Amino acid sequence: MLKRDLVNAVSDKIDGHLKKDISQAIDIILESITEALAEDRRVEIRGFGSLCVRMRKSRSTKNPRTSKMMHIPARKTVHFTMSKSIKDPLVKNDTENDE
Amino acid sequence: MLKRDLVNAVSDKIDGHLKKDISQAIDIILESITEALAEDRRVEIRGFGSLCVRMRKSRSTKNPRTSKMMHIPARKTVHFTMSKSIKDPLVKNDTENDE
């Protein structure tokens, strides 16, 4: 699923808006989220999930090719936590596959 | 940052759309993403990141209260991978803090 599929989904369900405007609205939404995360603010969308910046610890690992130990410094990463309304359909599909 | 902040950001930057419509558009976008994930489809938004369903392995852990070992079954979870345009401002802020 790509951005254009989201634009189409909105344009199919709400009349009277140009696809160009919908696409621009999605860009503004994504820019706002990116800005919030860059400022270490948590983004929480009820009924969907939340995005927050987490620190990943520094760690040492072996380069499999050279067998040399290398150090990976601590770094920031974006973590997504899904809310119950996403989790339920996932778990439901999962249980159906098990049976 | 909450959904209403996203609605306001869009409404401040594009004229001629009701907040009600913008809010509905955001709901449609989130529903479409949820549906795609429930069907195990990857959602990829260029310049932002991607969401995909990953399987978390089953694991055994000790209940810290009862000290009893308990088994946590394998389960699906949604993983967010950020694209370079989100990563760069995060890393930039990080390096500034270090100096």
Key attributes of the depicted protein:
homodimer; 99 residues; alpha+beta; HU Protein, Chain A; 2 domains; three-stranded antiparallel β-sheet; two-stranded antiparallel sheet; 3 helices
Can you offer a commentary on this structure?
2 copies of one chain form a homodimer. The two termini of chain A are 28 Å apart. Chain A has 99 residues and is α+β, with helices and mostly antiparallel strands. Chain A is 46% helix and 27% strand. Chain A is built from 3 helices and 5 strands; from the N terminus they run H-H-E-E-E-E-E-H. Chain A has 2 domains: 1-39; 42-99, IHF-like DNA-binding proteins (HU Protein, Chain A). In chain A, the strands form 2 sheets. Chain A has a 3-stranded antiparallel sheet. Chain A has a two-stranded antiparallel sheet with strand order 3-4. The mean pLDDT of chain A is 89. In chain A, strand 1 and strand 2 (49-56) form a beta hairpin. The radius of gyration of chain A is 20 Å and the shape is extended. The longest helix of chain A has 20 residues, at 19-38. At the A-B interface, helix 1, helix 2, strand 1, strand 2 and strand 5 of A face helix 1, helix 2, strand 1, strand 2 and strand 5 of B.
